[in-house]
Specification:
It contains 29 helices and 14 strands. It is α+β, with helices and mostly antiparallel strands and about 625 residues long. It holds the Pfam family HSR.
């Protein structure tokens, strides 16, 4: 991929303008000039004239004139110019070109600096005016005629006339008088101060009637980051200091001008401590499974964290609805990415390359090699890695070979749905640390409840879980351990062969002691929780469903099954299976006239029975034997 493709022609021209002097001082520039000549970037007569110069001073002046000519006469070929200048053989011969290339790509050269405007045209106009005036005087002397004297001006007119000691024209004079500080933004652009160079490290913020300075680096590290008259506050402490404690969400109550910190964090202008934690000791308030501790034992800080997460989940639920609709359409053989209409509404959509497929997440996408944005069944990949795994071509192109709705990924890029980050981008995806790259290997959302928060990352697969969403629940004592942690899905998959060296019958599986098969039961429950996206069978239906107890005499739900499993109330696998199947039997009985919910129950029942046979390695019965039973 061309590394200069991320820069505009205007930026490359500005870089040439600021680098002409350095390039003109290169020793023995003959190879450099030959390269420009080979690519038809300079005229033949200019090249021949310059190549014969022996004097060092004249040669440097000539090279400078050549570069000046390229900027003025070849602006449309500026990318061709830099591509041919940054060839390997030239970079090895000229250290100046190596330094320029590094400066361009590592971000040390900034394009937002506004250079002074040229005044060459005005000087030329002045010269023409003076020449015309002198010509008129000479003509008067020859003809003997004198030009009529102007009428005497008033005092006010004399005051407006510039002093005789200045040589500048009236237009130049007005320009000098109006010279003042200008922001790094062009006219018409929004002056967002959080992008100004002066606020690169600190940013003015307000909360209520209090004002302070926010340190960007301290915020990213999770430290006390807001200083007010020498006192340092955490964001929540500054929120309380500003009289907004009741809000309990500093991302909304703390603002920079009229923009909340939440918006700045979402747009990438600020970095806050990531909600994603690898074996973090923090717990979340929202949980699907009961815990041994009572509800009153949840700390106040956990409640605050839970409220923040709930607010974030509200926005995420909208995206999830689109994702579910897309998955449903994909299952029915229809595309829902909308590429054919030029509009893409999904943040997550299906992509394929050869024999493999995955889901591309827009919020993780940065470029072909930055940001692991494609999720397969086994891992997260960058687009380049994904196309390498799926394409059989010797030189695959991720923009062309990755397909979305039957069209190449370049369609999404051209429609500006996917934005390729610049090489100078300093975001977390483009300038990721070792820890960031390690975290990119796992999902940002909980695999079970599909919401964000402090999650535990499996070290063997891309899944992530809330502590209480995983079965068995993850204790805080395990979080501080640096040993490899594997989720129930991976543990069962790794032990399946030696746990069941031979197949058993369905009746033999039911008579097994539950204590010897907790892992299999926990896996089956996780599958049901994952499949029940709307949480229809999770909580007690007697609370929310009217007249439920009048129809169903023995109600049971998934949370209740988990509770009984944790309290060792099941003796054999048969009791566990009976309770799970009773959930779906009750659903069919209560929803005789509601086909939608009845079909939901049947779908989960089929999933449970299919996974049960696979998990316990149930041998397939002969049709004759099954009919005799």
């Amino acid at each position: 991929m061309d590394p200069l493709a991320f820069l505009t022609d205007k930026q490359l021209l500005q870089f040439l303008r600021c680098s002409r002097t350095e390039m003109s001082c290169m020793l023995q520039p003959h190879t450099f000039l030959n390269q420009l000549r080979d690519h038809l970037l300079i005229p033949e007569n200019m090249y021949k004239k310059l190549i014969l110069i022996r004097s060092k001073e004249l040669r440097e002046k000539g090279v400078y004139q050549v570069l000046d000519w390229v900027e003025a006469k070849r602006p449309d070929s500026i990318k061709v110019f830099w591509n041919c200048v940054f060839r390997d053989h030239l970079l090895q011969q000229y250290p100046t070109l190596r330094l320029l290339r590094n400066r361009l790509l590592d971000g040390s050269f900034t394009f937002y600096e506004k250079l002074p405007e040229k005044v060459e045209k005005e000087e030329e106009e002045d010269t023409k005016k003076k020449a015309s005036a002198e010509g008129e005087e000479e003509a008067e002397e020859k003809t003997g005629r004198k030009k009529r004297k102007p009428k005497k001006r008033s005092a006010s007119a004399e005051e407006e006339q510039p002093s005789t000691s200045t040589q500048s024209t009236p237009s130049q004079k007005r320009k000098v008088q109006r010279l003042k500080y200008c922001s790094p933004f062009r006219k018409g652009e929004k002056a967002d101060i959080w992008t100004w160079p002066i606020y690169k490290s600190q940013l003015p913020v307000t909360c209520g009637d209090k004002e302070g300075m926010l340190n960007r680096d301290k915020l990213a590290k999770g430290e006390r980051c807001i200083v007010v008259q020498g006192r340092w506050f955490t964001p929540s402490g500054f929120e309380e200091f500003g009289g907004k404690k009741s809000h309990k969400n500093w991302k909304y109550s703390i603002r920079c001008r009229d923009t909340t910190l939440r918006e700045l964090i979402q747009e990438g202008h600020l970095t806050s401590p990531d909600f994603k934690r690898r074996k973090s000791a923090q717990a979340t308030k929202r949980a699907l499974f009961p815990s041994n501790q009572s509800a009153g034992s949840i700390t106040e800080s956990e409640e605050d964290d839970g409220e923040e997460e709930e607010e974030e989940e509200e926005e995420r639920q909208k995206r999830e609805e689109g994702e579910r609709g897309e998955q449903a359409n994909t299952a029915g053989g229809e595309s829902s990415t909308g590429v054919s209409h030029g509009v893409v509404k999904k943040c997550v959509f299906k992509v394929t390359c050869g024999a493999i497929n995955g889901m591309l997440h827009k919020d993780r996408f940065a470029s072909g090699s930055c940001g692991k944005s494609i999720r397969t069944e086994l891992c997260w990949m960058t687009p380049v890695k994904f196309v390498t795994e799926g394409s059989a071509l010797e030189d695959p192109s991720w923009k062309k070979d990755i397909q979305c709705d039957g069209k190449p990924l370049s369609v999404l890029i051209e429609s500006k749905f996917l934005h390729i980050h610049s090489l100078l981008c300093k975001c977390k995806l483009c300038c990721s640390t070792v820890k960031d790259r390690h975290d990119e290997d796992n999902d940002d959302d909980c695999f079970i409840c599909r919401s964000q928060g402090s999650v535990i990352c499996c070290d063997k697969c891309p899944r992530s879980f809330h502590q209480r969403c995983h079965l068995p629940n993850v204790d805080d004592a395990i979080l501080g351990d640096n040993r490899t942690w594997m989720c129930t899905f991976c543990v069962l998959g790794a032990s399946q062969l030696w746990r069941y060296p031979k197949q058993i019958t369905y009746q033999e599986a039911l008579t097994c002691r539950i204590s010897d098969h907790l892992l299999e039961c926990q896996y089956l429950l996780l599958c049901l929780y994952k499949a029940d996206e709307d949480n229809i069978f999770v909580t007690d239906p007697c609370i929310n469903v009217r007249n439920y107890t009048s129809v169903i005499k023995t109600p049971v739900w998934l949370d209740r099954v988990v509770e009984k499993l944790q309290q060792n109330l099941y003796k054999t696998v048969q009791y566990f299976v009976s309770d799970v199947l009773l959930i779906f039997t009750n659903c069919a009985t209560f929803n005789r006239d509601n086909a939608e919910f009845r079909e939901m129950g049947e779908r989960l029942k089929d999933l449970f029975e299919r996974e049960f046979k696979s998990t316990f390695s149930i041998q397939l019965q002969h049709p004759a034997a099954s009919n005799s039973q």
